Amino acid sequence: MSARSKARRRALDILFEAEQRDMAALEVIRARREKTDIVIADYTVDIVEGVLEHQEQIDEFLSTYSQGWTLDRMPAVDLMLLRIGCWELLYNDDVPDGVAVSEAVELAKMLSTDESPKFINGLLGRLQQLKPTLLA
To answer: How far, CA to CA in Å, does 80 sit from each of 13, 74, 104, 133, 136?
Structure first.
């Protein structure tokens, strides 16, 4: 697993924990740094901060283009993966669009339901097609 893939996985863990414990994600990062020996890569922090900064717009895109699924109905892991993938796809020019989508799908294969990779691939693929108009 590449360093960036590990950073995505750690960002997912942090965002998921924050959501489940009703904590601020940056507080989760601070607590992990203070109470564990876990090294949190700069890119992990970039992802978490980026998702938080753009979460309102990301969630709007996800709710608008996910057919038949509200954000509340999505498994929490899928929602966090979609937020990360959407942030990389739309707001991080350092990550090629195809990589943003495929990395989210790969994490879904490892961590979520059997249906999740197809759902995440379809939704992020749709956002990738619409990218020029979404941010215009």
So the answer is: 9, 10, 10, 23, 25
Neighbours of 115 (CB within 10 A): 11
User: Distance (Å, rounded) from C-alpha 104 to C-alpha 118?
Assistant: 11
Cα→Cα distances 88→20, 34, 101, Å: 23, 28, 9
| CA dihedral for 72, 76, 77, 82, sign (positive or negative) | positive
For the chain, the straight-line distance linking the first and the last C-alpha, in angstroms and rounded, comes to 34
Tokens representing 35?
């109470």
Structure confidence by residue, pLDDT tens digits, 95-119: 999 999 999 999 999 999 999 999 9
In angstroms, rounded to a whole number, what is the distance separating the alpha carbons of residues 35 and 101?
33
Calculate the CA 89 to chain-centre distance. 10
Please give, one letter per residue, the 3-state secondary structure of 106-117: HHHHHHCCCCHH
Question: Residue 87's pLDDT band (boundaries 50, 70, 90)?
Answer: very high
Name residue, tokens 């960002």. Answer: 11
- Residue for token pair 């993938």: 85
